[in-house]
């Protein structure tokens, strides 16, 4: 009995001493669905998608083994449907060998609208993260969403969106990842148009308030802030 306890203790110690590099190497070869299941085995494994070192290994393996990865991948499809004479925007997950299977996604709605109209920025996700933009003017909220972990981040409103006496139109969006610094960024173009209903007798109205201006600004997820591009 004592010998069995000693052997069991040694096995437990060996299991606890497995280097992270070896764990990352093994887990990086799993499909996303399988990796999510392994999250309940060990507490630290549930946050692997937040580990830059692991994500770097995971992406490199996908690029080398892309043919096998496609067997377990899925696509997101944004559709406009008519329900009770109203247009609604629905997300579907397409999966299967030929993406012939289709499932409606019960995704979180962070746009503060009953039925938001939105676009996806770019042609797909970056490291599993999607950039969604509300098409409702003047809302134009930006949301970063990870369908795998179901986490999302509502990007804060820029101070340049609330300028007196002008209408702000956001015309273009871009979304990208900067490996140096391991951060995600959103870039967009803003256009200022003077409001047509301004009272010309307003004393504090300056040319700067109503002048036409086209500018770019960029958002950093790491600093959670917007800045103007000069």
UniProtKB/TrEMBL annotation:
This is Putative F-box domain-containing protein. InterPro entries: F-box-assoc_dom_typ1, F-box-assoc_interact_dom, F-box-like_dom_sf, F-box_dom, SCF_F-box_component. Coiled coil: none annotated. PANTHER family: BNACNNG10540D PROTEIN, F-BOX PROTEIN CPR30-LIKE. It comes from the Eukaryota. Residues 117-229 form the F-box associated beta-propeller type domain. SUPFAM superfamilies: F-box domain. Residues 17-54 form the F-box domain. Pfam families: F-box (PF00646), FBA_1 (PF07734).
């Amino acid at each position: 009995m004592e010998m069995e306890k000693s052997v069991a203790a040694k096995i437990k110690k060996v299991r606890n001493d497995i280097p992270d590099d070896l764990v990352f190497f093994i887990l990086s070869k799993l499909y996303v669905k399988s990796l999510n299941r392994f999250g309940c085995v060990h507490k630290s494994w549930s946050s692997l998608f937040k580990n830059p070192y692991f994500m770097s290994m995971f992406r490199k393996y996908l690029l080398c083994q892309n043919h096998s990865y496609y067997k377990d991948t899925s696509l997101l499809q944004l559709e406009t449907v008519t329900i009770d004479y109203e247009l609604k925007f629905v997300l579907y997950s397409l999966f299967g060998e030929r993406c012939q299977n289709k499932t409606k996604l019960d995704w979180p709605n962070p746009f503060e609208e009953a039925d938001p109209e939105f676009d996806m920025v770019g042609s797909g996700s970056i490291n599993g993260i999607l950039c969604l933009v509300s098409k409702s003017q003047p809302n134009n909220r930006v949301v970063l969403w990870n369908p795998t972990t179901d986490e999302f981040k509502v990007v804060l409103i820029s101070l340049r969106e609330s300028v007196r006496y002008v209408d702000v139109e956001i015309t273009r969006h871009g979304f990208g990842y900067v490996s140096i610094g391991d951060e995600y960024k959103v870039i967009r173009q803003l256009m200022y148009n003077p409001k047509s209903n301004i009272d010309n007798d307003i004393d504090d109205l300056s040319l700067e308030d109503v002048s036409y201006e086209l500018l770019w600004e960029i958002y950093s997820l790491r600093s959670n802030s917007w800045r103007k591009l000069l």
